[in-house]
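Quick one, tokens below:
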């Protein structure tokens, strides 16, 4: 994602509809998290370990940082990352495994994935999994062709039953998709029916019980869309509700829910941010990092 500042967003007069909602606050993890190079942090249930990706030049690496005796230690490269373009780590709700997307070759000795959906060749992305092994991690495993059916399958999010949300190119734009996990296998992905199907949908942070999701919706100059929330009602997703100008002023993207499921982290043009969701979603009462 570009980090340069962009011109002001042309947005509708909607702020009055969100009076009383909190504003986002900047995230700081000591020296572990560097806004200039890092994004999309996600935390373990105890709040003492953070995963995020770090970009140096054209390369991205999944990083791990630990909080020890109340202080964040410097981050280091995950043992399963460092060679390929790896990004967007996401923990399973129980912390037993981690998903990320990567351009690494699907077959040993193969070439890295490349996609050209956005006007020029760029690193592709498929979803990979590593399982927790004590204090370490397994070797990365490709999730297979049912999920990874193109060179751009990006930004995984996993819910309580193991089903996946992710984004991919669809009919000239980017949309969210969901792959149901059943009997140890992923079923073919189905586009998430939410809002106007001609409008891009990006970077979903879905509650483990799928009661709500935070995601980018629409088109804005210099950004991926407006951060919005939708609710699962009667087996269908509600219309997107814009989270307001205070949230969207910094061109947000890359939403990730905190362990309490009532705080969302997101990356903007000038900061990484934290937003309390209690006024938008039912309280569940757990602390955040």
């Amino acid at each position: 994602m570009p980090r340069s500042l962009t011109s002001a967003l042309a947005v509708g007069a909607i702020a009055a509809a969100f009076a009383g909602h909190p504003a986002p606050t900047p995230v700081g993890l000591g020296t572990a998290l560097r806004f200039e190079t890092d994004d999309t942090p996600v935390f373990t249930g105890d709040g003492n370990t953070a995963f995020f990706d770090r970009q140096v030049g054209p390369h991205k690496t999944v990083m791990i940082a630990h909080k020890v005796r109340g202080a964040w230690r410097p981050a280091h490269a995950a043992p399963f990352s460092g060679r390929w373009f790896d990004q967007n780590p996401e923990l399973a709700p129980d912390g037993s495994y981690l998903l990320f997307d990567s351009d690494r070759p699907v077959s040993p000795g193969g070439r890295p994935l490349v996609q050209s959906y956005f006007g020029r060749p760029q690193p592709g992305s498929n979803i990979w999994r590593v399982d927790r092994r004590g204090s370490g991690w397994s070797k990365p495993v490709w999730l297979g062709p049912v999920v990874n059916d193109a060179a751009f399958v990006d930004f995984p999010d996993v819910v309580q039953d193991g089903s996946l949300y992710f984004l991919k190119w669809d009919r000239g734009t980017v949309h969210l998709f969901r792959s149901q996990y059943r009997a140890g296998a992923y079923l073919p992905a189905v586009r998430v029916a939410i809002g106007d199907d001609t409008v891009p949908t990006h970077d979903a942070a879905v509650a483990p019980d799928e009661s709500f999701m935070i995601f980018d919706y629409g088109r804005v100059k210099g950004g991926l869309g407006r951060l919005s929330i939708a609710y699962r009602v009667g087996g269908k997703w509600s219309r997107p509700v814009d989270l307001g100008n205070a949230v969207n002023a910094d061109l947000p993207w890359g939403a990730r829910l905190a362990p309490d499921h009532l705080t969302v982290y997101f990356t903007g043009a000038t900061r990484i941010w934290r937003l309390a969701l209690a006024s938008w979603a039912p309280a569940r009462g757990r602390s955040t990092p």
